[in-house]
Amino acid sequence: MERQAGDEVLMVQKIRSGQLDGAAVTAIGLAQTGVTDALIFQVPGLFANWGKLDAARNAMKADFEQQFQSKGFTILGWGDVGAAKTMSIGSRFTTRPTCRGKTASSSRATPSAPSSTRPSAASPRRRSRSRDPANLKNGSIQVITVPPLAAEQLQWASMVTHINTMTTGFGIGAIIVSSARMSGLPQNLKDVLTNRGHEAADRLTKSIRNLDAQSFARLKTSKSAYEPTDAEKQEWRDVFTKVRAQLRGAVFTPGVFDKVVSLAQ
After folding, report:
1. 3-state DSSP percent of the chain in helix, strand and coil, to 5
2. Distance separating the N- and C-terminal Cα atoms of the chain
3. What percent of the chain has pLDDT over 90?
4. Cα 190 vs. chain centroid, distance in angstroms?
């Protein structure tokens, strides 16, 4: 779909202009809708597991559906990209001292991405995802934090040497459609589209989580995999807490932020 309709930024623009009816997007596409609050679900260190994420997202469903409707989009179903792991070239990436001098990949299309990297003492480099393979190969980027499935599918995995087994966050996505196009459908077709969208999102969620887990298992055998110590994990949790404080009010609406953080705990 990306080859036919452009990248996620362009696809959302086309939905807004009426050139496309809908698309399956990741956080990059969701950010382009203007509902940046939705990106809170993939803030580093917020959720302990998929179950916590599901519970919070279900509890906030009505709030976010209203936000997306106000921007002209309808959510047919939420989805996921995978459980993000930090991968690096040449050495481990465990604590702030090990980060210094390294350049981390950061998407320019996701507002919270640079803030998630900066407190770690690694320098964030904002860029298009399409340039990551070349940047990893030429050494201009030494660290990426992505789900294992994405690392394999986008051919980044072959270029990294180390993988931190700690999950830093969860990559999210959704199936979005134009609210204007939805409102123009007869009620019976709206019902069919809504039901099919929910079914497709549920199937994709189960499939992607399973495939991501399989990818992680493969990378643990082909890379130098390491589990951070309890002290190192606590250091990262402290960093993530500071990141969230910086994002509250700057990227995320305080009221929504507080609700989701409370649900996560």
Report:
1. 55, 20, 25
2. 37
3. 74
4. 28
